[in-house]
Structure formats: structure tokens, C-alpha cells
Write a structure and sequence with these properties.
By secondary structure, the chain is of the alpha+beta class. It has 10 helices and 5 strands; from the N terminus they run H-H-E-E-H-E-H-H-H-H-H-H-E-E-H. It has a 5-stranded mixed sheet. Strand 2, helix 3 and strand 3 form a beta-alpha-beta unit. The longest helix is centred in the N-terminal third of the chain and has 55 residues.
Length: about 280
Amino acid sequence: MQKLIKKFKFENFKAKNSKTGKLQTNSKNRMENADKAKTPSNGKKQARQREIEAKKDKKAAAVRERRKRLYNARRIAAAAVMLFVIFIAVMIMKAFHRGPIMPAPEYRQIGNGKAITEIYEYTDLACPACAMANEKLHEILSVYGDKIKLNFKHFPLEMHRWASLAALHADCAGEQGKFFQYADLLFKNQKDWEDKEKGPTEFMVYAEKLGLDKEKMQICLANPDNAERIRLEKAEGNAKGVEATPTFIINGKLSIGAGAIIQEAQRLEKISKEAGNNEK
């Protein structure tokens, strides 16, 4: 009997423990499932991290773009200010005819270095009006050469196809001591070369006529410094208000056309007469 009671108690205890164990297991499983529900998977974590990084990159890109736009705006503003300053400076120089005048090469200077009248002539060797002014200059220099210092400046106009090339040939003739003689031939024979479709052969014909060394001429023509000097002289003329040819700057005063030379000749004539009367 006692054995039966013990067996019953043991089985009853075992059943309770089994039931309690199942309850504990189920509770543990529920807790784990709840934790899993609360905790995102690794894939979701990575996706979330990528999203955060993408937002950071987008924000950084926006900042860089703003800085780039600001930098470009500042550069444009600085360039605009610089252009405005240059424009004002050019206008001032044109208004007052100031600014440095590059000395013409010695072979393009004629007259008395201590003369009372200094003339800078901006001219185009293909310009008919310049050819007329050249004749007037010869007349004035023949009479008042001791009272005038002439500086010949190139100002080839775009409308004259061969003007720059003619200027270059004249300068190369000048290096052999024949600038004014060569320029005279160009002025007198403008109709023979100014409208040529191809490079005028007359330029070398004039060189032969003056007895110039052909090899030296070719070397001079090939030297880029000589063409650059002509370009810079035209830029200088533009800065000083030269817009047409011939233009003269006589003792610092800008005048256009041969009329300025005639007026200067009249002034020199008056000075000469007054000097003669004082001597008497």
C-alpha cells in the first residue's frame, strides 16, 4: 500500500514538473520572439545605415555645390570689377590722350630731337588719306625740319587686307636704313598692291628697287617680334583714342587728318616770322 502511495506521489510530482517545464519553455519562447520582434534584422540595420550615409552624402554634396556657386559668383564679380576698371582707365586715356607712348624704332624717326614740335603719326600704308598726308609731311619737313621731330607709328586697319604685311616689309627695309624710302614707294603705288587676292609680289620688287639684301629681308619678315611690335603699336593707338588714319598727336594733342599738319605748318611759319622780326 505504501509503495502505491509513493508511486502515485512520484508520478503526480513528475507531471507537475513536466507541466511547469513546458510553461517555462513556452514563456521563454514568447520572450525570445518578442525580443526578435523588437530587434531589427541585420539586413534592416544595414539598409538603415545606408540610408543615413546617403543623407549625409547628399547634404555634403549640397554644401559643396553652394560653395562652388559662391566661388564662381565671386570670380565673376571680380572679373566684372576688373573690366570696369580697365574700361574707365581706357576712357580716361582717350579723354586726356595720356599713357605711355612706346618710342618708335630709330629708323622710323626723323627730324630734330630737340625740336619745338613733336609729332606722332599713326598711319596705314594702304590708306589713301595717309598717302596724301605723307606728301604734306614731306613739304613741311623740307621747310621746318629743324623744328619738327616726327615719330612714325603703324596703325593698319582691318579693312585693308595687306596693310599689316606692308608695315612689316617697311620695318624690315628700315632695319637696312631705308624705311621712309620704302614707305614712299608703298604710298605712291597703293593701287598696284592693296587689292591683290594673294600676297603682293610688289613688296619684294620695291626691296630690289632700293637695293636691299633679300636674305636679310626674309630673316626679318620671319621674326615674330617684328609683327608683334606692329600689333602693340596699334593697341597703343587704340588706348590713346586713335580710331581713323591718319591721326596725329602733336605736342600731346590728338588731331585727325592732314588738316592738323597744315595747321601746325602755319603755326611754325608764324613762329619763324616772329623770330625773324625779333632778330631785326
